[in-house]
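pls design
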C-alpha cells in the first residue's frame, strides 16, 4: 500500500464541480483584484472565526508581515516568538529590521512555553508572536495576560490552525491580529498562494486594508508605505467553496489522530499531546521517536511518506547567526528537531490506511 503525506487530488475529487463553477464565475466577471469574491470570502471567515474583520492577503507570510507593519514594528524593536516553526514566522520579523527573540517550547505540545516569555521582555519588546504549531493552539490566556501587563501586541501565527479553538474561542481571535495561510498544503488550501488577517480592531483593519494596496488612501495618494499584498479573486472563490468543508475535513483528521493515538499508546512512539482546553485541527500528526531517521527510512521502504517538521530550529539557522544564539540555548526545540516525525493525516485517508501506517511504524521497533 502506497501512502503519500498529502493527497490533494483526493480532496479535489470531493469538491471539483463546485470549485470549477466558482473559478468560472470569477472568469466571467473578470473582476480579478479585490472583487466581490474576496469580499465574500472575508465576510465568511470573519463569521467563522467570530472576529469583527477579515482582510484577505497574498499569503500567510504577507499576513504576518502586514500585521507587523500595521503595528509599526520597526528596526530595533524586538518580537518574542518560537524557534520551532516554519521560517516565515521569524523571517517576517527580521525583514522589518526587528529582532526575533526566541523562547523555548513545551516538549509535549511543541508550542511556545508561556512560563519562559516574561523573562525575555525588555523595553524594546513590541509584540509576542505565538505559533499554533501543527494545528494546536499555544496557551493564549497566559500569553495575552503577559502582553496586556507590558502593553505590547499579540500576533497569532495561525497559519496551521484555521478552525482550531481554545476553550471554545477560535484561533486568530485572541490576538490583536490572527494570521492564516492558504498555501496548498494547509488544512484550508487555495490553488496557489493566499492568506488572511483577522482582527477585532477597526483601526488595525483599516490600516491593513490600506497597507495591502501600497498604502494608498485615497487612490493615488500615499500616507504610508505598503505593498501589493492583495488576495486573488480566483483564490478567494476557491477558498469560499472549501471553507464549507473545513469542519468536516478537520473532524476526519481528528478521527485519524485518535486512531493513531490508540495504536501508539504505551509504544516507543510518543503521540503529540493535545492540552485539555484545546481542539486541534491536526495540520500535522507529529510523533517523537528515537532513531527517527531510521524509522523514516523504514517507512519510505514500505512506501509510506512522512516528513520532518522541522529539522533545524530557527535560532540556529545561518541567516540568524547575527542574533548570537548557540547550540544548547533552547534545548527543548533543539531536541525536538532530532526526534519529530509527521505521519500522513489528510482527511481522505481511510482508517485502514491509518492503521497500516501505525502498524508499520511499530514494526520498525519490533513491538507489533
Ligand atoms: C505556512 C506557514 C506560514 C507561511 O504561509 P505562506 O502562505 O506559505 O506564506 C507562516 N507560518 C507558519 C507557521 C506556516 O506554517
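designed seq:
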Amino acid at each position: 500500500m502506497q501512502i503519500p503525506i498529502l493527497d490533494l487530488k483526493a480532496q479535489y475529487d470531493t469538491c471539483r464541480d463546485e470549485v470549477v463553477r466558482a473559478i468560472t464565475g470569477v472568469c466571467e466577471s473578470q473582476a480579478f483584484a479585490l472583487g466581490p469574491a474576496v469580499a465574500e470570502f472575508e465576510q465568511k471567515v470573519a463569521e467563522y472565526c467570530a472576529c469583527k474583520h477579515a482582510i484577505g492577503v497574498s499569503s500567510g507570510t504577507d499576513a504576518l508581515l502586514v500585521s507587523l507593519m500595521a503595528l509599526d514594528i520597526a528596526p530595533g524593536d524586538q518580537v518574542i516568538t518560537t524557534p520551532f516553526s516554519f521560517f516565515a514566522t521569524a523571517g517576517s520579523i527580521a525583514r522589518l529590521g526587528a529582532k526575533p527573540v526566541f523562547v523555548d517550547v513545551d516538549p509535549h505540545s511543541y508550542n511556545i512555553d508561556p512560563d519562559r516569555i516574561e523573562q525575555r521582555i525588555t523595553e524594546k519588546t513590541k509584540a509576542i508572536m505565538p505559533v499554533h504549531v501543527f494545528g494546536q493552539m499555544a496557551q493564549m490566556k497566559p500569553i495575552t495576560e503577559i502582553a496586556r501587563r507590558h502593553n505590547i501586541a499579540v500576533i497569532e501565527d495561525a497559519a496551521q490552525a484555521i478552525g482550531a479553538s481554545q476553550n471554545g474561542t477560535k484561533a486568530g481571535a485572541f490576538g490583536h491580529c490572527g494570521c492564516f495561510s492558504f498555501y496548498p498544503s494547509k488544512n484550508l488550501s487555495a490553488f496557489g498562494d493566499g492568506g488572511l488577517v483577522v482582527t477585532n480592531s477597526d483601526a488595525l483593519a483599516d490600516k491593513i486594508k490600506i497597507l495591502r494596496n501600497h498604502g494608498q488612501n485615497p487612490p493615488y495618494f500615499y500616507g504610508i508605505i505598503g505593498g501589493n499584498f492583495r488576495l486573488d479573486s480566483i483564490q478567494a472563490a476557491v477558498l469560499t467553496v472549501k471553507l464549507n468543508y473545513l469542519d468536516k475535513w478537520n473532524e476526519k483528521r481528528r478521527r485519524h489522530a485518535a486512531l493513531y493515538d490508540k495504536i501508539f499508546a504505551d509504544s516507543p512512539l510518543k503521540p503529540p499531546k493535545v492540552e485539555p482546553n484545546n481542539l486541534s485541527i491536526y495540520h500535522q500528526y507529529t510523533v517523537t521517536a528515537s532513531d527517527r531517521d531510521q524509522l523514516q527510512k523504514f517507512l519510505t521502504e514500505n512506501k509510506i511518506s512522512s516528513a520532518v517538521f522541522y529539522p533545524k530550529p530557527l535560532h540556529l539557522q545561518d541567516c540568524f547567526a547575527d542574533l548570537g544564539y548557540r547550540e544548547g540555548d533552547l534545548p527543548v526545540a533543539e531536541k525536538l528537531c532530532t526526534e519529530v516525525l509527521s505521519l500522513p493525516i489528510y482527511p481522505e485517508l481511510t482508517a485502514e490506511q491509518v492503521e497500516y501506517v501505525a502498524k508499520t511504524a511499530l514494526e520498525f521497533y519490533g513491538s507489533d
